[in-house]
Amino acid sequence: MSRTAYRTCPLCEALCGLELTLDGDRVTRVRGDKADPFSKGFLCPKGATLGGLDGDPDRLTAPLLRSEGSGHVPAGWAEAFATVERRLRDVVRRHGKDAVAVYIGNPTAHSIAGPLYAGALVKALGTRNFYTASTADQMPKHVSVGHMFGDPGAIPVPDLDRTDHLLMLGANPLESNGSLCSAPDFAGRLRAIRARGGTVTVVDPRRTRTAALADRHVFIRPGTDAHLLLALAHTLFAENLVTLGALEGRVRGLEELRALVAGFTPELVAGVTGIRPLEIRRMARELAGAERAAVYGRIGTCTQAHGTLASWLVDVLNVLTGNLDRPGGAMFPRPAHVATYRRKTPFTTGRWRSRVRGLPEVKGELPVAALAEEISTPGEGQIRALITIGGNPALSAPGAGRLERALTELEFMVSVDPYLNETTRHAHVILPPPRPAQTPHYDLSLLGLAVRNYVRYSPPPVPLEEGRPGEAEILARLALIASGAGADADPMTLDEAVVADTLAKAVAAPGSPVYGRRPEELRKQLGSPERGYELRLDMMLRLGPYGEGFGADPNGLTLAKLRDEHPHGLDLGPLEPRLDEVLCTASGLIELCPPSFAADAERLRADLGGSPPDGLVLIGRRHLRSNNSWMHNVPQLVGGSNRCTLQLNPSDAARLGIGDGDAVRVTSRAGTIHAVAETTDSVMTGVVSLPHGWGHDRPGTRLRVAGAHAGVNVNEVTDEREIDPLSGNAVFNGVPVTVERVG
Ligand SMILES: Nc1nc2c(c(=O)[nH]1)N[C@H]1C(S)=C(S)[C@@H](COP(=O)(O)OP(=O)(O)OC[C@H]3O[C@@H](n4cnc5c(=O)[nH]c(N)nc54)[C@H](O)[C@@H]3O)O[C@H]1N2
Ligand SMILES: Nc1nc2c(c(=O)[nH]1)N[C@H]1C(S)=C(S)[C@@H](COP(=O)(O)OP(=O)(O)OC[C@H]3O[C@@H](n4cnc5c(=O)[nH]c(N)nc54)[C@H](O)[C@@H]3O)O[C@H]1N2
Ligand code: SF4
Ligand SMILES: [Mo]
């Protein structure tokens, strides 16, 4: 008997609604959910093969314990949690709280469990050694908006559906499906801009599929976006094109900015960026001339030496052209689960520093680029135990060769992960979360980045087996272990504590829909949902901007209403201006020229007037049928030709005596890897490109399909010593390398 169930795709940021056909407990077909008001039936090849991922025979179904000699062996949940409790307690007793580190990876941002419970775990551990994939990704954006708007979460997204001009840097949504900008069918939305007479410009060292779709593609030397953006700002000032519009009187630092950009003329940045002055002026004029325009930068602008500056300048341009917070410009989404009455304290960084290199904390995190040295360097505060949650830093972290060696030095490691892979093979305990068909979905992290206000909740299509915890419960139990409550404590106690705390704050907050009421009375209205995450989501939705406010607005949202009346999701309308709700700087104004950014911009001056350095630099790339390191075990996605090739321009290849298909050796300061060359004029001269997430040839893993398509790990040549200083973010783009033919 087959049946149909609906859920959001958890694989990338596009939030596509899926229609699953289930035969018993197995997913037999996946289609786009045509009734989803946001994705309208769109899905990509990865979503279409969710069934293959869901039913992957290599997926772990029970905890694994590592035993000397016999590798990883299955164990019961009680034994696994008891082992974690005993071993963690032992490490803390002997070495203190900071000896236990946590690393959280990308899939955790797509789950309910991660955003609701990981913070409680880190807090209960009381460790300063908290790392996430954010410092290999978007941390520069958090730092830039944190200083500009006061809130590191206030990331404006391009209003794709209404803009007339989109300037995109370092993003390739035709492969990635979009990032820090959730927009199912991103490609269709880009085509629509052109169809309504608008224009799209792409700035990228490669002529990508996205670039091919745009009106114009401009090659840029990797790592020089900040130079380009300063020259664009320069041109706006020089040609009197600055028009703040509704932002007039709401910004601070305009004159400081004008003075800063004065020295960055198009002529002076042309050499370093590889972009002609004429082209730069044209880009600035088009941006200023468009009725409604948005500048959007993504990972190419973040994972580079000037990541924070580039991220900042993207929004500087949005402000200078009056496009921030207006329809068709760059806007702040309004997620249904985030209360707007909460007063936020202005963003700061550096409340503590990493032990070895003294790198500043950002958002409570230390840079993943520092993880290996914090494990390997002896002394007080050294990391002795590691908890990984949905992360594969052995492949994904910069300088991963060094990190892999460091993982072998740990006294204890526990991983919450469905696979025995390059990272988790080092774990003493692996706690596998259930498959997607058994997992609920609500995009706590991503709904605040969507190009329409939209909300969807998907309960798990298939119930869990008796005695098997969901991921929320796994993380809650780890948090309770860390807090000293023990492996047997009821996970619901954690949720009840959070709810009590949130309600107490809500009733005390003027402007909240429940101001002045009694928390106990509100708690009663939430009833007794079976799962702790449902209790919390219900509370968050009720207190949120579309919520029923515990009776304040009977037509407002509750979890039950969302789940039962809107199983395909609910459209909450186009984005609306909401700067007043968002802005929380100490000055109450947009900080256009934060002093630390202006100081860091001095680093750029040294390059001015020069020509680009000789020698090759390495960048990454993504492929539609891949997803970081962990979807190479799905046969339907890895078939066909080798995708882990080193792309280089034919002119560089000729100079180096390298032919298409030749074996090459790639060497950087951090290490050496071997790859197969692919010559293509889609990469600019002086640039080579290799994707990340490969290198599945390690012993002791259980990834039978991926093992047969191993590829090489590019992060053995990226360099953990190179970081963006303001955010601590990894530098994956613009890594100096030499390339030689071998054999
Ligand atoms: N299919 C697929 N989708 C994914 C992922 C995946 O692995 N595969 N990963 C997901 C994740 S974790 C993320 S963060 C997002 C990322 O989403 P995107 O940011 O769209 O990622 P990419 O496709 O890597 O596009 C980055 C582009 O930046 C270019 N670039 C490199 N260096 C520079 C530079 O210095 N300046 C400029 N201007 N451009 C540069 C690259 O050539 C590349 O085309 O994708 C997500 N979606
Ligand atoms: N050179 C280079 N390196 C990069 C990048 C790059 O562009 N170039 N991109 C960087 C970026 S943007 C990112 S986000 C990072 C990603 O870095 P990571 O998050 O460390 O790596 P992933 O490959 O996403 O690994 C995801 C892990 O989560 C597990 N997993 C899958 N589903 C679930 C689940 O439901 N629950 C749990 N608990 N685990 C699950 C997988 O088995 C896998 O072990 O990589 C970064 N590394
Ligand atoms: S675009 Fe992303 S969310 Fe949509 S089906 Fe593909 S992987 Fe899933
Ligand atoms: Mo990412």
Describe it:
The chain is α/β, with parallel strands linked by helices and about 750 residues long. Among the domains are: about 55 residues, ADC-like domains (N-terminal domain of TfIIb, Single Sheet), CATH 2.20.25.90; about 220 residues, Dimethylsulfoxide Reductase, domain 2; about 80 residues, no CATH class; about 130 residues, Barwin-like endoglucanases. Helix content is about 30%, strand content about 15%. The protein has 27 helices and 28 strands. Helix 4 links the parallel strand 6 and strand 7. Helix 9 runs parallel beside helix 14 and helix 11 crosses helix 12. The longest helix is centred in the N-terminal third of the chain and has 19 residues.
